[in-house]
Amino acid sequence: MGKYFGTDGFRGEANVKLTVDHAFKVGRYVGWYYGRDHKAKIVIGKDTRRSSYMFEYALVAGLTASGADAYLLHVTTTPSVSYAVRTEDFDCGIMISASHNPFYDNGIKLLNGNGQKIEAAIEERIEAYLDGEIEELPLATKEDIGRTVDFASGRNRYIGYLISIPCRDFKNIKVGLDCANGSSSAIAKSVFDALRAKTYVINNNPDGTNINTNCGSTHIEILQRYVVENGLDVGFAYDGDADRCIAVDHMGNIIDGDKIMYVCGKYLKEQGRLNGNTVVTTVMSNLGLYKALEREGMRYEQTAVGDKYVAENMLENNYSIGGEQSGHIIFSRYAATGDGILTSLLVMEACVEKKATLCDLAKEMRVYPQLLRNVRVADKKAAQENPRVREAVQKVADALGEDGRILVRESGTEPVIRVMVEAGTDELCHKHVDSVVKVIESEGLAVE
Question: How far apart are CA 233 and CA 227, in angstroms?
Answer without folding.
Answer: 7
